[in-house]
Amino acid sequence: MKRILVSLICLFLAGAVFAQDSKPRVVWDLSSGDTTIQAAVFRQINNARAQLPDLEIEVVFHGKAIYAVLKSDTAFVERVKAAKEKGVILAVCNNSLRRLKIEPSEVSANAVVVPSAVAELIRKQTAGWSYLKAN
Predict the structure, then answer these.
(1) Which of 61, 73, 83 is nearest to 108 (CA)?
(2) What's the pTM?
(3) Count of domains in the chain?
(4) How many CB atoms lie within 10 A of CB 49?
């Protein structure tokens, strides 16, 4: 009985240490073409980073949200650049680019193109990232 109790205490302490050492990570799911919602995500990134300076952030743009990270977009060019400079990963769905007949070369240099938004979100959640849906 004593051995079981000691083992449980060790497991509990190991879990507590792991939880304290794990870096907070969040992935935002952004599919809206609404610039108000897109602007809110950029504000929320800054707010979250102010409270959690070591927060790792990725925003997955798909659907009509991809227009916010195109080279031709002027509404968010500075916010996209600032986010990238702060270490935020801005991932653009290649499936959405194809569906909307947009070449990957039209995506801002501050963003990366991923094969699939859905697969990217699944990978992040499977790896333990928190999930936020922008709406």
Answers:
(1) 73
(2) 0.83
(3) 1
(4) 16
Q: For residue 9, what pLDDT is reported?
A: 57
Q: Is residue 104 part of a domain?
A: yes
What span, in angstroms and rounded, lies between the C-alpha atoms of 43 and 40? Answer: 5
In sequence order, what DSSP letters do the residues of 15-82 get, joined into one string? HHHHHHHSPPEEEEEE----HHHHHHHHHHHHHHHHH-TT-EEEEEE-GGGGGGGBTT--SSHHHHHH
- Establish if 18 belongs to a structural domain: no
Q: Tens of pLDDT along 58-85? A: 999 999 999 999 999 889 999 999 999 9
Cα-to-chain-centroid distance, residue 90: 7
What's the confidence (pLDDT) of residue 22? 85
Residue 104 CA, distance from chain mean position:
19
